[in-house]
Amino acid sequence: MSVNKRSKIKKVTTHVLQEMKLHGERIAMITAYDYSMARIIDSTAIDVVLVGDSASNVMAGNESTLPITLDQMIYHARSVVKAITRALIVVDMPFGTYQGNSKEALCSAIRIMKETGAHAVKMEGGSEILESVSRILSAGIPVMGHLGLMPQSIHKFGTYIVRATEEEEANKLLEDADILEKAGCFSIVLEKIPAKLAARVASTVRIPIIGIGAGADVDGQVLVLHDMLGIIQDFSPRFLRRYHNLYEEIKGAVQNYTDDVKSKDFPNEKEQY
Ligand code: KIV
Q1: Which of 90, 104, 234, 251 is least surrounded, with the fewest CB atoms within 10 Å of its CB?
Q2: pLDDT tens-digit map of 15-39
Q3: pLDDT at 233
Q4: Average pLDDT over the chain, rounded to whole?
Q5: Residues 212 and 261 in one domain
Q6: Active-site annotation holds for 191
Q7: Long-range contacts of range 119-122, CB-CB < 8 Å, 24 or more positions apart?
Q8: Ligand 1 test: best mutation among 29, 30, 31, most atoms within 8 Å of CB?
């Protein structure tokens, strides 16, 4: 299929992503958590929308992704699904809903698919969660893996610094990518790892590799919407490119409105009945 035909595709599927990798066409993925933002995103050519558990940080103000619940993820995903018409929608399985036992993992994934209308789930980890990944895949639910920095394991890592810089961890990551591909995952996110290692994974496995802080030689990129729009200001990792400074824009608009109310400038004669 030509690039031109793919860009006119009505709905992005896991097969379309595979085709894009085969043709060297980069995949653009972004997070979304609510209907209004998702509507704006839907008017772009974005390929994948991730209802990330980063909602725990950017929407709920938690310090980590650990507190967000399955019910809360389902709430966010339902809002996003209502707005997205073209992109593939992936929902993060929250911490504690798949690490314990594979039956519970399958029930959690089924709830996400049934109650939201999303197209796939994302799970953090490799060999440790293989049983859960396989059980979910066997129910016909597409799974995106997530390796490298895994924010749900922050208390094991102790820090958000770049992962897999040492040989042992890099080898484990390569093995895990292979395990996830063989299990049947349709794609893997690699977060905050050396660019050379990410490039090696992307050239070794056949499924699309989506990077965040993983360099340019992977099959696609993902950013957290609120970070790239400059709504969140106190998070500035090297990999983040800010496309806007919405914090200042929103602050200015709300301050202007407040000033207008206090000075009795708003509403004026044309703004009343
Ligand atoms: O939850 C999230 O936003 C993510 C991305 C950082 C990939 O998992």
Answers
A1: 234
A2: 999 999 999 999 999 999 999 999 9
A3: 87
A4: 96
A5: no
A6: yes
A7: 119/13, 119/14, 119/88, 119/89, 119/90, 120/14, 120/88, 120/89, 120/90, 120/91, 120/144, 120/186, 121/90, 121/91, 121/92, 121/93, 122/50, 122/52, 122/90, 122/91, 122/92, 122/93, 122/146, 122/189
A8: 31
Based on the domain organization, do 157 and 114 belong to the same domain? yes
Q: What distance in angstroms lies between residue 267's CA and the mean position of ligand 1's atoms? A: 42
Specify the pLDDT at position 5. 61
Does 208 sit in the ligand 1 pocket, CB within 6 Å? no
Residues 249 and 236 reside in one and the same domain: no
Are 269 and 139 in a shared domain? no
| pLDDT value of residue 10 | 85
Q: How many CB atoms lie within 10 A of CB 61?
A: 7
Which range marks the domain in which residue 141 is found? 3-242
Let me know whether 124 and 89 are in one domain: yes
Same domain, residue pair 225 and 197 = yes
142 and 262 in a common domain:
no
Q: What is the pLDDT of residue 234?
A: 87
CA atoms of 128 and 178, how far apart (whole Å): 13
Q: CATH number, domain at 83?
A: 3.20.20.60
Count how many domains the chain has.
2
**Catalytic residue from among 131, 191, 269, 271:** 191
Q: What is the pLDDT of residues 40-98, one digit of tens each?
A: 999 999 999 999 999 999 999 999 999 999 999 999 999 999 999 999 999 999 999 99
Whether residue 204 sits in one domain with residue 134: yes
Q: Whose CA is nearest to atom 8 of ligand 1?
A: 52
For residue 1, which amino acid is it? M
